[in-house]
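Recall the central idea of this unit: under ordinary conditions, the amino acid sequence of a chain determines the structure it adopts. In this exercise we apply that idea directly, starting from the sequence alone.
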Amino acid sequence: MTKEILDAFIVGAGPIGLACGIELERADLKYVIADKGCLVNSLYNYPYNMTFFSTSDRLEIGEVPFVSHGSKPTRSEALEYYRRVASSWNLRLKLYEKVVAVASDEGFYKITTNRGEYQARSIIVATGFYDLPYMLNIPGEELPKVRHYYDEPHPYYDQNIVVVGAANSAVDVALETFRKGAHVTMVLRESEISPTVKYWVRPDIVNRIKEGTIKAYFQSSIKEIREFEIDIETEAGPLTLPNDFVLAMTGYQPDFGFLTSMGVAINNNDIKSPVYDQETHETNQPNVYLAGVICGGLQTNKWFIENSRDHAKKIVDTLKHRFILN
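Accordingly, the structure predicted from this sequence is:
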């Protein structure tokens, strides 16, 4: 175990975890930021050619300017930016270090990782939601041809692919793979493409479906996946399609298990929102705080970088009053 007692142990090195580290630096409080993956691991796992919905100024943290070549930054520009933020603030990062257990320890928390142990007065959970995909829970989902993450279109050239989903990720994947030579079919439980799809993209996918270059089965679902074909249930009845890959863009969910392992209460409602104070972001567990997307539970579109950057200041202002002013 490290001899140093930290004021805060931050779980998650995404943009909001970094923002928390910056506020702790400003307050001269001792901390580390641990992540089981790389810096801004979720952003790293976004599709290679992804463009953000937000403008670059809305993604800024720590008063480090974010200048992009276009009106909306790309994934590669964001990765470069957050590397620069981490270097500029000399943030105390512990990357590829997974938290495996948290326990109360005589007024402190003992945090065990795959690389060691830490003691901290508080824990800030800023883990986002990108690690656990919603599963289809159907026969054949374990086959290598089924992907819950998407990176680039090239492997799908001249292949029969099925894209599952009706929201932004599914639409982006369908359009990009179609334009790189894939034979694309969409399978959607919904009766239409989601109205929340990016306004400059939605007409494109609607027109491709209308003209038939992308086939879409609405109010339908996959029933079974086999090596070279799939069975789907459509409005008109069962159907078997030739298939090489299934790209299940069905969304992701937070790691509720990690929260409950620390005793953080989860509301028994449709969105499974964690219990926390709206002003301080402290949970029902003393000195355990939530920051960023994790605050919304299953409502993963409620919080994002541009509207949760202030979570860091709220939390650290509370810690300053507890650990410094008192």
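The mean pLDDT is 94.
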